[in-house]
Amino acid sequence: MALWDFSDSAMTFDQPIYLFDGSYSIPIVPPFVAMPNVVGLDYENALAMLQTDGVIVPSSIGYFGTYPVTAIWQESNQAPGIVLAQQAAAGAAVLPNQSITLTISQFPVAVAFP
Q: How much is the pTM?
């Protein structure tokens, strides 16, 4: 039977997690990356930064995979397409292709009447 040994509560990006089977511990280092701060960037540049920093890795999503970014469009006095908020927080340890949410200022909706 294998158990996760979380003996140290303060995790860092390079700290291994130990898989313990009763007789020995096997260090496993998860591929965590730091979530960058994308608030204030336009949506396209935010996605580019997430790819550059390893938060989004398109090549490992697969053909039928789910894109890990959820966009919530919100009315705002900011210019359209600007990231207003993010979840996971900036600096948080995330796994590549972990689900994250970006709140983005909504583009104006215009309706033309004849």
A: 0.69
